[in-house]
């Protein structure tokens, strides 16, 4: 990195996104998965909107057909990149430890490569990347240990967490294909503007999911509500802004290194705060998954600057 401040930003980002799984776990003590997701998204949208306005960024309305088309495209990205995965993580964490959820979230780059192959954004897969893909998913199998029956970790909660990571993968592929144009009216949109639009669209979509999980708090309590507030303000709004800043300063490849820090943060916080424990099999599986992620990203180059709408999320990090 060229700037010591960006080291600090990267560490803070890993702490915020890694802690998000702890916040979700605590928030679920009072709220349903849909309520946690909606609160997180709405608070994150508020923070990003404020940052966008304060930085002089553009706020895009619905006045032109081109703008409405852009909003529709971003709404699809919001479904797969925000609403669906965050509800699924909430469902999963009802039965899955927060630390293990963070480890499963680290499979996001593997899903991105897999869906990229299916949708044509990945036209070839050199040997090292193929090995990484196979190693990464092998690490997941080691973690789940389905051959151990009741002693293994395979269950609906784990499958929900993996589905959330896969949804992130779909969103990255979709963004790469659909938001790589010049912007709006020939003018490039800043990454912060696009992120604000996506979180705003996600807020509206998530609102319609609330009846599914119930509208009233399950058991209102100060600590869970504070955890959800921290999840929205810090783990979503400020974390996204930090991610964008690191990409702008250092490029997507550097920003993607957060992928390797987040699982460790989530595991340590789960152990310290919630007294979660992990056996050697889970830790070994985590190492294999991260090794697979590293290999799968061989020769993947990051980008700098603000030339494309898609540059908001080009690094395919395993974000929370």
Automatic annotation (TrEMBL):
It is a multi-pass membrane protein. Keywords: Membrane, Transmembrane, Transmembrane helix. The keyword Transmembrane applies. InterPro entries: AA-Vitamin_Transporters, EamA_dom, EmrE-like. The chain crosses the membrane at residues 7-31, 37-57, 69-88, 100-118, 130-147, 153-176, 188-210, 222-242, 254-272, 278-296. Residues 10-144, 156-296 form the EamA domain. Its main location: membrane. It is found in: Membrane. GO terms for cellular component: membrane. Belongs to the EamA transporter family. This is Drug/metabolite transporter (DMT)-like permease. It comes from Actinopolyspora biskrensis.
């Amino acid at each position: 990195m060229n700037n010591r401040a960006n080291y600090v930003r990267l560490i803070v980002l890993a702490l915020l996104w890694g802690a998000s799984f702890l916040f979700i776990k605590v928030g679920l003590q009072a709220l349903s998965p849909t309520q946690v997701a909606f609160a997180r998204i709405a608070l994150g949208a508020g923070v990003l909107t404020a940052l966008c306005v304060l930085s002089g960024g553009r706020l895009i309305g619905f006045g032109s057909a081109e703008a409405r088309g852009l909003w529709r495209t971003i709404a699809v990205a919001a479904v797969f990149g925000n609403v669906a995965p965050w509800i699924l993580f909430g469902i999963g964490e009802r039965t899955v430890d927060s630390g293990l959820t963070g480890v499963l979230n680290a499979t996001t780059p593997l899903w991105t490569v897999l869906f990229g192959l299916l949708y044509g954004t990945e036209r070839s897969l050199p040997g090292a990347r193929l090995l990484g893909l196979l190693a990464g998913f092998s690490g997941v199998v080691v973690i789940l240990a389905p051959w151990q029956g009741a002693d293994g970790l395979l269950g609906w909660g784990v499958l929900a967490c993996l589905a959330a990571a896969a949804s992130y993968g779909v969103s990255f592929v979709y963004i790469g294909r659909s938001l790589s144009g010049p912007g709006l009216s020939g003018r490039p949109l800043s990454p912060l503007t696009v992120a604000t639009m996506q979180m705003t669209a996600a807020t509206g979509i998530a609102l319609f999911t609330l009846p599914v999980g119930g509208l009233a708090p399950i058991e209102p309590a100060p600590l869970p509500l504070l955890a959800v507030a921290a999840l929205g303000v810090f783990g979503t709004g400020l974390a996204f802004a930090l991610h964008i800043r690191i990409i702008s300063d250092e490029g997507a490849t550097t920003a993607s290194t957060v992928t390797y820090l987040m699982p460790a943060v989530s595991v340590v916080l789960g152990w310290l705060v919630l007294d979660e424990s992990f056996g050697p099999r889970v830790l070994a599986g985590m190492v294999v998954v991260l090794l697979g992620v590293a290999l799968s990203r061989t020769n993947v180059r990051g980008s700098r600057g603000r030339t494309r709408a898609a540059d908001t999320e080009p690094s395919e990090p395993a974000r929370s």
